From TrEMBL:
Record protein name field: N-6 DNA methylase
One of the GO biological process terms: methylation
Annotated ranges, domain DNA methylase adenine-specific: 143-352
One Pfam family named in its UniProt record: N6_Mtase
Domain of life: Bacteria
The keyword Methyltransferase is annotated on this UniProt entry: yes
Length: 634
């Protein structure tokens, strides 16, 4: 049996040093482990030997059992999904009071850590800890449907206590959202066998009735003939070989044969075919499906027969591909003898943030569902469009093209208010910008890492919050999320069944996202919120560290390079970030400058947003004739 291997770059990350340090160790220490593979330019080393050497030299930071196990697991397996599935099978066997008969030889050395983690957290908790690490973005890991998007999709499907099918399960994000919403039975199918095993293991370890099968849902439907209460799905986009030739007359094509160039519409019909009459399907779709000419006939039939009930344009970045503003299609399996509804709902939520717009989307959908023939309309956001209007030459279902404009007096008032707000913010900018001067030569350049500051008691390093199984508490305190920190807004999340511990935030705490596009640090200025998932909490000792100074030091470009993953995933280990050593009085002076700089940046963001809004309002008003120039320039 071969032990897992590790590269020099990975050794550097493991020890929290640069690659040059690893090169020096190899030259200066004859007992440094010899390469066991790779090439001369990129050698590979035995992970176990390297860990033993680093530990003996006092160069290996202490890791939690889950961190150590996950690192070994990812290195020992052909893929992270396969490795986690193998360990999940061991944990499930233990939960059921038995031991798996067959154990992969590469995983055998990990059994002591698997048992230790299961002893500490229980089999379910151990799997959830490893799942949290698997779900973090990284090489070889799939793009999962984000939890907030999955929750919105499940909310639109109104699953309640019914049965749910996800025919493109991935790692199971949508099925987990359905469990959170109270669904009692789950079904899934996934082309990647390792991911299918993972999703099925999650259900089994959480005692959720259901079944997840491997295979191609379109070519080899594992649940043929089964009708469920809801189908919720994030299907693959743009597939060129999806089986159109062999599936030309498939009974699932209930509104007509799906064109070869419209694979997403094949998934729509697959979903409809699995719904009981009255059940809902929600699918994440590329925006072009709403208007492509090849799909016009299918879109027309979906509308005519009353199956397509809503199309919702989402903000860019809610899911991969992140630069595309995706759509949600909401369908309802209509009875063949029922008269089709007169209207379909189109919602344009592309201009906001999903955290802010999701409640509005759900409210608009529920109002429409309660009165499907009513005149539901919110200018610039949602409109219940007569189906006869949609059945025009193009059958274009793009929500933005069917929304009523904000016109007349309301538009003029909005423009005036926006202009006044922008002028007020711009007027404050000079006073907000901190005044600074070049430092004299010989300024103190000694730095300490966050890890070293924690050891000396200058700060406490808490979190990130681990996943758990706490009961939801919708009326409890708000939760500060990663999105809140990045946007610089108040806590907007809530405690749910993904929380394992509740950590109250205090004034003066500094929070840092573990995964983000850039290193961001925020100072907590009000009590009452809880620490959210994937956030580090740094709690300074007020006798040693000023919080605003600490936050300003952490967010530098140098620390972004120092603490981020070398793989480019922007996963930060804040313990490696460096903080300049200054007296407490010096820290407070710098902290005041950092505080003013934070306010300046916030004002700049608001000004940019208001400026773009003002320009669009003015252009729209001039073009429509609702506004005119003050002076006649003819």
């Amino acid at each position: 049996m071969e032990n897992p291997t590790i590269t020099a770059a990975e050794i550097a990350r493991l020890a929290g040093v640069g690659r040059a340090a690893v090169s020096n160790w190899r030259k200066r220490h004859p007992d440094f482990p010899a390469p066991v593979g790779g090439t001369t330019a990129s050698p590979e080393f035995d992970l176990i030997q390297v860990e033993q050497w680093l530990r003996a030299q006092g160069k290996l930071p202490e890791l939690a059992t889950a961190d150590r196990l996950w690192r070994h697991l990812a290195a020992a397996s052909d893929s992270p999904a396969a490795g986690l599935a193998a360990v999940g099978a061991l944990l499930l066997a233990r939960q059921r009071g038995s031991r798996s008969a067959s154990i992969d030889a590469q995983l055998a050395p990990l059994l002591p850590d698997v048992d230790a983690l299961a002893d500490e957290l229980g089999p379910q908790g151990a799997f959830d800890e490893l799942w949290q690490r698997f779900s973090a973005p990284g090489p070889g890991r799939p793009f999962a449907t984000p939890d907030d998007l999955a929750d919105l999709m499940i909310g639109l499907a109104n699953v309640g206590g019914g049965s749910v099918l996800d025919p493109a399960t991935g790692s199971g994000a949508i099925l987990r959202a359905a469990v959170r919403a109270g669904s009692t039975s789950m079904y899934g199918q996934e082309l990647d066998d390792d991911l299918a095993r993972l999703a099925g293991l999650w259900l089994a370890l959480h005692d959720v009735p259901g079944e997840v099968s491997g295979g191609d849902s379109l070519r080899a439907d594992a649940f043929a003939g089964r009708a469920v209460d809801a189908v919720v799905c994030h299907p693959p986009f743009g597939a060129t070989n999806w089986g159109d030739e062999e599936l030309g007359h498939d009974p699932r094509w209930i509104v007509g044969t799906t064109p070869r160039t419209e694979p997403e519409l094949a998934w729509v019909q697959h979903a409809l075919a699995h719904l009981r009459v009255g059940g809902h399907a929600v699918l994440l779709m590329p925006p072009t499906v709403a208007s492509r000419r090849a799909g016009k006939r299918i879109r027309s039939e979906l509308l005519r027969r009353g199956h397509l009930r809503a199309v919702i344009a989402l903000p860019p970045g809610v899911a991969a591909p992140h630069g595309v503003p995706l759509h949600l299609w909401v369908l309802r399996r209509a009875a063949t003898d029922a008269p089709p509804p007169a209207r379909a709902l189109l919602i344009d939520a592309a201009g906001g943030d999903l955290t802010d717009t999701a409640p509005r989307v759900l409210a608009a959908w529920r109002a429409f569902a309660a009165a499907p023939d009513g005149d539901v309309e919110e200018a610039g956001f949602s409109r219940a469009v007569p189906v006869i209007e949609l059945l025009d030459e193009e059958v274009d279902l793009t929500p933005a093209r069917r929304q009523p404009a904000v016109v007349g007096e309301a538009s003029g008032e909005h423009l005036v208010r926006t202009r006044e707000r922008l002028a007020a913010i711009v007027g404050e900018l000079p006073a907000l910008l901190p005044q600074v001067t070049p430092a004299p030569d010989g300024a103190d350049g000694l730095f300490l890492t966050v890890g070293e500051l924690a050891k000396t008691g200058a700060l406490q390093l808490i979190g990130p919050v681990r996943a758990g199984t706490s009961a939801p508490a919708p009326d409890g305190p708000p939760v500060l999320t990663v999105q809140d920190v990045l946007a610089g807004v108040e806590a907007s999340g809530r405690v749910d069944d993904r929380f394992g511990q509740e950590i109250p935030l205090a004034v003066g705490d500094v929070v840092v996202p573990m995964i983000a596009r850039q290193l961001t640090a925020r100072v907590v200025t009000a009590e009452g919120a809880l620490l959210g998932r994937n956030l580090y909490l740094l709690r300074p000792n007020p006798a040693a560290l000023d919080p605003w100074f600490l936050a300003g030091q952490l967010r530098t470009s140098a620390n972004e390079k120092q603490s981020s993953s070398l793989s480019g995933t922007m996963r930060f280990d804040i313990r490696r970030a460096q903080v300049r050593r200054l007296s407490l009085d010096g820290q407070r002076a710098h902290g005041d400058a950092f505080r003013r700089l934070d306010a300046f940046e916030s004002a700049i963001r608001q000004a940019a947003s208001l400026g773009a809004e003002l320009a669009q309002l003015t252009a729209d008003g001039l073009a429509r004739g609702d506004l005119r120039p003050d002076a006649d320039l003819r």
